[in-house]
């Protein structure tokens, strides 16, 4: 195991990061399908991502998560790396088809045993486990039965959540139901870019509603089963949506994007209703959100923490390059406007100021629930030296700029209580395969050798400094 973490932080004493309090949570995040591998071991059955990866052209280079980072077999080594970074929290997800093969019936003891060992390994090193119950790996059998557009999947999710909680709830205090329901619903069912690869906006909207319903049902089950206080939450991926100009068309495009990307999820979670303008926009497309009596009160089950994943902000225009406000099918134009800004290897604009704006806006529009940044990070074109070390100064700068954005948001009144870097390891980056690297620790996929990058060193030293452990 390569753990040369000797380089000092370059952050100055006047850095806004230093205003973060000693109680601030510091962590890293991963997800099951992206790192675990072992897709056919110990009773695990296929997920929608195992299936999607076999679709020709769906994933870059035809790659898959069969081995990924081999975390299933190397877990103690990876936990040791987290401990050496001095972090207090590890956010990981549980693979539904590993714990409940097929998505129905009793728990699989061999699958649960892995997470049981992981939790004990973390606690033994003084690291809090932060469980995400769903990070996109739906059992394929449930997709065959209709997937998330099918209402029954929400109930199956609540059953699964209860199984995991029964096994780990005596030691795990923080539980996230879903990771990024927008991605599951829209990229998976509306746009076809993620598993299961459907292209049907109506199915995407139904999936979004049933994901939220599943969240609420699971939250109620876990709260009822908890013998001691727990922290319940959900993680959403959010971006700012600003108009490119002050024109009515641009402002409406930004409104519509914000509605489908942010308010469609947060309004029912916090206010118990869907936004009227989004409902009207969907109705104009012939789409109805499949709400049944009582659904919204279930979705609005009180939570204790809101997980925020942030990577970029966007500008929107309501006219296309030809100056038209309607596309060829008569729909309103909602076009992302590219700016002359630095970008990551994902071609995402780097706009930390928008991160501050977002967090302040969330604290204003959805008050009363503390936030934790459950993902923030960047892919860059890493170039390792002969020893596998990556001097990723671009990633160091990204993390530093975004932590300063968090600090500024706190100074403006946003109740942000923690930050988890995405990601601990280079990993399987969904439709991009292994082409994009987000890790602060490099993984050589041929040898599975782990080498902390300069960003890992910087992150470790920053955490030490903020805690007063210079």
TrEMBL record:
This is Beta-glucosidase. Belongs to the glycosyl hydrolase 1 family. Residues 1-21 are annotated as: Disordered. Keywords: Carbohydrate metabolism, Cellulose degradation, Glycosidase, Hydrolase, Polysaccharide degradation. Pfam families: Glyco_hydro_1. It comes from Micromonospora narathiwatensis. It catalyses: Hydrolysis of terminal, non-reducing beta-D-glucosyl residues with release of beta-D-glucose. GO terms for biological process: cellulose catabolic process. Residues 1-13 have a biased composition (Polar residues). It comes from the Bacteria. The keyword Hydrolase applies.
């Amino acid at each position: 195991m390569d753990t040369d973490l000797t380089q000092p932080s370059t952050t100055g004493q006047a850095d806004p990061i230093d205003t973060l309090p000693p109680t601030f949570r510091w962590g890293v995040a991963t997800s099951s399908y992206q790192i675990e591998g072992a897709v056919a071991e110990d009773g695990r059955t296929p997920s929608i991502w195992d299936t999607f990866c076999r679709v020709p052209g769906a994933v870059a280079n035809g790659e898959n998560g069969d081995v990924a980072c081999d975390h299933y077999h190397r877990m103690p080594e990876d936990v040791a790396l987290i401990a050496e970074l001095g972090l207090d929290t590890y956010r990981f997800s549980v693979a539904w088809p590993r714990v409940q093969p097929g998505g129905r019936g009793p728990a699989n003891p061999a699958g649960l045993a892995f997470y049981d060992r992981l939790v004990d390994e973390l606690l033994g090193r003084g690291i809090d486990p932060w469980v995400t119950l769903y990070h996109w790996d739906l059992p394929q059998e449930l997709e065959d039965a209709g997937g998330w557009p099918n209402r029954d999947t929400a109930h199956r999710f609540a059953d699964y959540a209860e199984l995991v909680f029964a096994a780990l709830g005596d030691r795990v205090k923080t539980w996230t139901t879903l990771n990024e329901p927008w991605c599951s619903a829209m990229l998976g069912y509306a746009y076809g870019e993620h598993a299961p690869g459907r292209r049907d906006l109506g199915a995407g909207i139904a999936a979004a509603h049933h994901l939220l319903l599943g969240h609420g049902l699971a939250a109620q089950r876990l709260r009822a089963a908890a013998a001691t206080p727990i922290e319940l939450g959900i993680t959403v991926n959010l971006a700012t949506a600003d108009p490119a100009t002050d024109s009515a068309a641009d402002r409406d495009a930004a409104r519509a994007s914000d509605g489908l990307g942010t308010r469609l999820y947060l309004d029912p979670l916090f206010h118990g209703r869907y936004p009227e303008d989004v409902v009207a926009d969907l109705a104009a497309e012939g789409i109805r959100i499949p709400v049944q009596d009582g659904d919204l009160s279930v979705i609005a089950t009180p939570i204790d923490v809101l997980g925020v994943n942030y990577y970029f902000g966007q500008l929107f225009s309501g006219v296309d390059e030809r100056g038209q406000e309607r596309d060829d099918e008569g729909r309103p134009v909602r076009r992302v406007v590219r700016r002359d800004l630095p970008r990551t290897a994902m071609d995402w604009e780097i706009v930390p100021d928008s991160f501050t704006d977002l967090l302040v806006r969330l604290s204003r529009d959805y008050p009363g629930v503390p936030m934790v940044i459950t993902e923030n990070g960047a892919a860059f074109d890493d170039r390792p030296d002969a020893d596998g070390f990556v001097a990723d100064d671009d990633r160091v700068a990204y993390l530093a700029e975004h932590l300063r954005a968090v600090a500024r948001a706190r100074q403006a009144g946003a109740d942000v209580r923690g930050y988890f870097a995405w990601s601990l390891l280079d990993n399987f980056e969904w439709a991009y395969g292994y082409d994009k690297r987000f890790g602060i620790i490099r993984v050589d996929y041929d040898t599975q050798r782990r080498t902390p990058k300069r960003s890992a060193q910087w992150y470790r030293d920053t955490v030490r400094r903020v805690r007063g452990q210079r």
